[in-house]
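Example 3.
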Amino acid sequence: MLIDLRSDTVTKPTKEMLQAMFEAKVGDDVWGDDLTVIELEEKVASIFGHEAALFCPSGTMTNQIAIKVHTNAPGEVICEESAHVYRYEGGGIAFNSGLSSRLIKGDKGQFTVEQLKAEINADDVHFPPTQLVAIENTCNKAGGTIWDFNEIKRISQFCKENNLPLHLDGARLYNALIETNTSEKKIGQYFDSISLCLSKGLGCPVGSLLIGSTKFIKQARRIRKIMGGGMRQAGYLAAAGIFALDNNIERLKVDHQKAKFLAQIMEKCAFVEEVTKPQSNILIFKLNTSFPTDEFIQKMKEQNILVGAMGEQKIRLVTHLDINDKMLERFEKVVKSP
Ligand SMILES: Cc1ncc(COP(=O)(O)O)c(C=O)c1O
């Protein structure tokens, strides 16, 4: 039995999801005639209270398209220092959009409106114009932390008052919404664009949606084509997305409970220095210095358990659809004497 706790991106489609994919009616989406893709895009846009959406191959692509469409170099994007858009997208902000990044040192991946205000550039030729603010919910590197809703509201209001678009990297947005019992429309109203991943907690094999206004999505479609993200019979993948939205959202709570259970296990381990309390499906803990990270990862691998490194002495465990109770029992046994 392989226990893969590296990421929620590792899930394989269930039989039921595969059946939905198998039965999809497809067309050529680059020509705009794949009815299943259109259904998914319309469904998501409407759920979040926006006009339109665009189905893309990955969350990196939806984020990078959003950044490209919202900005016009020279310019600057503001985000938190651990943000995926900055750290883990291959330098795409500079490469694709020719922008500089202004990083805010936040707390658990989040910053306040006061911190944001302090980073807005004055209208002065020495500085790149501030053109976009991006936040991430849940925050991956911080350990799946959930943004304070009131702070989102304050940031959104400030951005509106200052004509600054606000983008949400919602790779794991549903984890935040389910945990805080917040509706899609309630959060949707505060952002100009949202990237929503289907291939993380929602269990799809591929796919992310970019959500926004009709005008924004029209331009996003153009950029998607330039980036090579126009897909043909993509309805097979979109069908998985529709299935996930109908079936895999509520169950995210189960992943969150499992992450809490893993935290309890790790807290009891003598070789663990610190466990960050999980807020969703990601658990980060710190090994004490006597146990090098690589050695821990290797020892677990020898027992068919895959875990990921997350910085110095830090390990990340992510719960998901393909992790069951039996696996957790075995995990507990193994970490008791690794
Ligand atoms: C917060 C966040 N945003 C964006 C992405 C990018 O998604 P993808 O792997 O589909 O490009 C990830 C991937 O793990 C992520 O964690």
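The pocket of pyridoxal-5'-phosphate is lined by residues 9, 58-60, 63, 84, 136, 140, 169, 171, 197, 199, 208 (CB under 6 Å). The chain has a mean pLDDT of 97.
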